[in-house]
Amino acid sequence: MMSAQIGPAKVGPVRIGPYVLSSNVILAPMAGVTDRPFRLLCRRFGAGLAASEMLAADVRLWDTKKSRLRRDHAGEPSPRVVQIAGFDPQMMADAARRNIDAGAEIIDINMGCPAKKVCNRLAGSALMQDEALVARILYTVARAVSAPVMLKTRTGWDCSNKNGTLIAAIVEDCGIQALAIHGRTRADMYQGNAEHETVAAIKARIKIPVFANGDIDSPERAREVLALTQCDGVMIGRAAQGRPWIFDEVNFFLQGGELRRELALENVRDIMRAHLEDLYALYGDETGVRVARKHLSWYFRQHPGQEALRNRLVMIETPALQLSTLLEHFDTVG
Asked: CA nearest 301: which of 314, 290, 288, 289?
């Protein structure tokens, strides 16, 4: 429960290395979601940072279309962030150097992903079981690049092993310059409610910028979490799916204490159209249509009663028909 506020929510600028973020509300990296079109969209709506999808540290796996697209930062505003995942310190350091050489400006290390296919390789949140290995990875990567390195993690491995506070001290000692914490353990996956009391304890122990993550789905909730944890910022993940304008809503509320008006349908239409066109341009027709389907499902999740239209849109095979069907819908309801 989060009934008591420790103090006022922080809304000031956040610095990560040489970069002062435009907002302390940032986008969480999400595999299969935070591709370049979605990152650009969230940045346009005020996300202060938007990291790439997770990229395996093993460079032998990079010679695929999927990996090449994940390393594509064309048109992205500074600072550009790439998230890497792995278990071998030297391999992680090499991946960090290569990404900086390719245009990344901040490296984000993934120690928060709870997915079995990641944890089974002792990567992601599985690393929290081995604090010595965590230290070796962070120390090696931080010294391999001149760019800032940040970390995404969880509160611990399970409810009996909440070692997030201990790992946070390791993080600061190793030279990591920012930390994002999901308020769940790895065993929790995405179930139940995120708890931010542990996040507050972590923030109280270290001086580097800390971002609270987990179940932040409204402007009011963002302010509540900031006040409880005294973190420097918040990280929004699933709540941005189908609602990338949440960053504008949260920024507006944190700065002035008032809620934005609900977006007009014509604005939603224009956002969706531009997003779909960017997806088609990046992925090509066939893959672009497939990727667009999940975003359309998320967009229409915000508007109950549109299940029939959503079901039609996810069955369409061509960009022209997918887009025209969407626009016809808005012409009808407008």
From this structure: 314
Q: How far apart are CA 42 and CA 37, in angstroms?
A: 9
Cα 57 to the chain's mean position, in Å?
18
pLDDT in tens, 17-26: 999 999 999 9
pLDDT digits (tens, 9 = 90+) for 238-256: 999 999 999 999 999 999 9
Mind spelling out the 3-state secondary structure of the chain? CCCCCCCCCCCCCCEECCEECCCCEEECCCCCCCCHHHHHHHHHCCCCCEECCCEECCHHHCCCHHHHHHCCCCCCCCCCEEEEECCCHHHHHHHHHHHHHCCCCEEEEEECCCCHHHHCCCCHHHHHHCHHHHHHHHHHHHHHCCCCEEEEEECCCCCCCCCHHHHHHHHHHCCCCEEEEECCCCCCCCCCCCCCHHHHHHHHHCCCCEEEECCCCCHHHHHHHHHHHCCCEEEECHHHCCCCCHHHHHHHHHHHCCCCCCCCHHHHHHHHHHHHHHHHHHHCHHHHHHHHHHHHHHHHHCCCCCHHHHHHHCCCCCHHHHHHHHHHHHHHHC
Would you please indicate which residues are annotated as catalytic (active-site) residues? Answer: 113
Residue with tokens 């998320």: 298
Its pTM stands at: 0.92
The rounded distance, in Å, linking the Cα atoms of 234 and 65 is: 32
